[in-house]
Design a protein that fits this description.
- This protein is of the alpha+beta class and 146 residues long.
- Helices cover 39% and strands 26% of the residues.
- The chain contains 6 helices and 5 strands.
- A 5-stranded mixed β-sheet has the order 1-2-3-5-4.
- Strand 1, helix 3 and strand 2 form a beta-alpha-beta unit.
- The longest helix is centred in the N-terminal third of the chain and has 17 residues.
- The radius of gyration is 15 Å and the shape is globular.
Length: 146
């Protein structure tokens, strides 16, 4: 998982630097996820892009993971303005967006990729500001989706 996240961060390094976004990657090198690598990469790239777009004037991007009994979680958190209640509730609806000109399909794609692996994705506001999106995959589904 860490190698995949490092690849995504490298692909977006120029934009992250230009926007003065600091990165914290708290994902152990040994963690592995049995999933479709391309689909998981697309989902995480979308979450990364959304986080960057939420911080046009700079901020912090934090990527963390948790491997517990029967589940694996990866969280993408930003220090942007956070999510309004309506946006948080409707974030994964097709064609819903708070961005002008957006088709509103990015988070719908993330949600469908999570479901394809037997998992879920959740959106919440961080206690100190910003938003966090957590992709949770059950252990048994990780093996089945591989």
């Amino acid at each position: 998982m860490r190698a995949l996240l490092e690849e995504l961060l490298a692909a977006h390094a120029a934009r992250l630097s230009t926007q003065h976004i600091s990165i914290t990657l708290d994902v152990p090198a040994h963690e592995q996820v049995l999933a479709d690598r391309e689909l998981l990469s697309r989902a995480l790239a979308q979450l990364l892009i959304n986080a960057v777009e939420a911080m046009p004037a700079g901020g912090s991007l934090v990527l963390t993971s948790y491997q517990g009994h029967g589940q694996y979680e990866i969280e993408v958190a930003d220090s942007g303005p956070g999510l309004a209640d309506d946006a948080r509730r409707r974030a994964f609806e097709p064609h819903y967006s708070t961005k002008p000109g957006s088709a509103g399909l990015g988070l719908t794609l993330v949600e469908r990729i999570a479901r394809a692996h037997g998992g879920v994705v959740a959106a919440q506001n961080c206690p100190d500001g910003g938003a966090a999106f957590t992709l949770q995959l059950p252990s048994h589904a990780r093996q089945a989706a591989a």
